[in-house]
Design a protein that fits this description.
about 25% helix, 3 helices, 9 strands, nine-stranded antiparallel β-sheet, Lipocalin, alpha+beta, globular, about 140 residues, about 35% strand
Length: about 140
Amino acid sequence: MKQISSLLFVALIFLCLGCGTTKGLNPIALLTSNPWELSSLQGQEVDATKFPSGLPNLYFLDGGKLSGFTGCNNFSGGFSLESNGMQLDPGSITKKACPGTAEEEFISALEKVKSYTVNKEKLILSDGITELMSFAVLKNQ
């Protein structure tokens, strides 16, 4: 019984510490403060050779606007947040011909996004259950 009490106490401490690290952080401020570069897609690390023109990226802008690069084409659309939910709409996409299917996979994943987790360095987008893609802060703009 004493072991269970100790275990619960330790778990409570970790829970409190975890809550304290994100307290006061505004998710919109975290999203809009940096551009985000794709680091994984469908649970796999991104293969840069599938994106010869550069890795896809996202820019969350004020007013719910979204822009980015698919690895081949540019897009301009919107996003909306509700609690921990998120919807992304790539909107208008330029129409350059792109080799392979990586761009299609990226856009398809964007359209399935329903939830997100964000901190200062990483953004994870999921369909509510499965991670669809992750992004790291784009360092070289």
